[in-house]
Amino acid sequence: MGRSFFLSALAALALATPVAAQDASDVLVIAHRGASGERPEHTLAAYERAIDQGADYVEPDLVATKDLVLVARHENEISGTTDVADRPAFADRRRTKTIDGRPVTGWFVEDFTLAELRTLRAKERLPHLRPVGARFDGLFQVPTFAEIVALVKAKEAETGRRIGLYPELKHPQFLLRDEGIDTVDLLLRELAAAGIGANDPIFIQSFEITPLRRLDERSDYKLVQLVGAAGGPADEPSMRYGAMVTMDGAARIADYADAIGADIRLLLEEDGTPSGLVTAAHAAGLKVHAWTLRKENAFLPPPLRHGESEGGRGCPEKLWTLLVRAGVDGVFTDDPAIAVAARQGSTCGQP
């Protein structure tokens, strides 16, 4: 984000009246990989902390083991989120694969059975920014999707409130084409086995189009087309995300999906005012969920940073306010407690 990003909008915000409580009260707080700003991402501890902080949905990224079990990892390559590189027994599993058109070297979930994966331990992916999360390195296993569902159901019983699931299929076409693993089929089977239907609070998301179309043909679950600030779907290399979020593009997405999950940079102009994306999506009958709200200075535009440290806490609350003013229906966040408090009216770390 450029240094001028948000400046005029922030000036206007300083003079404006606060967002009315009713304007923000329906905006979903989606725990991005759990409370990943405080615990190693995609661990049961991160999901439980997010739920305890009031998140409406928890978001597991799903990949599959060699023996066809869905597990939660940000990517199928796991050297950045587990201690696999320190395990001599698995040194020979290191390899290079071409994933979505680029070479990736490391260790891949699909080359491990669940039993083998269970011997590994999760670690903080961004220890230089999140030393708090790194304190928990080595304590948690890689969870299965079934365990995440069980946790959600247990927390629903404990709290008496509904807690949504927001799974993302990671690299589904690569896994199907190159590894023979159909994560669309695996996910539908697991949801059926868990008794989770289309009327339950669940969204299924992907950056790719083909898996969403397959899900639309086979189920009535709410589906979300993810779009980035650059590039396009790996399974449709001729398409660009930018063209998918115009009026015409949003109408085409509405043929198979129910929402767009958009990079914040697509939702706000350089001056912090709303882009046309929310208008286009809402006109097509689509919800819009923004990603990703984070507290660290490294992820915030200069006007919202406090101090010089990249890992220092800035003011994500102001970014929340701009997103709500833009009309989004939900926000992915690494810090559910901050987002829940911002929804209730807190500003810059103040209750």
Identify the notable features of this structure and list them briefly.
single chain; 351 residues; alpha/beta; TIM Barrel; 8-stranded parallel sheet; 3-stranded mixed sheet; 13 strands; 33% helix; globular
Can you walk through the features of this model?
Its EC number is 3.1.4.46. Residues 1-21 form the signal peptide. It catalyses: a sn-glycero-3-phosphodiester + H2O = an alcohol + sn-glycerol 3-phosphate + H(+). Belongs to the glycerophosphoryl diester phosphodiesterase family. It contains 15 helices and 13 strands. The chain has helices at 7-15, 21-24, 44-52, 114-118, 131-134, 145-159, 172-179, 183-194, 210-218, 241-244, 247-253, 264-267, 277-283, 316-326, 336-343; strands at 28-32, 57-59, 61-64, 70-72, 95-99, 102-106, 164-165, 168-169, 203-206, 222-227, 259-263, 287-293, 330-333. An 8-stranded parallel sheet has the order 7-2-1-13-12-11-10-9. Helix 3 packs parallel to helix 6 (145-159), helix 11 crosses helix 13 (277-283) and helix 14 (316-326) crosses helix 15. The longest helix is centred in the middle third of the chain and has 15 residues, at 145-159. It is globular and about 50 Å long.
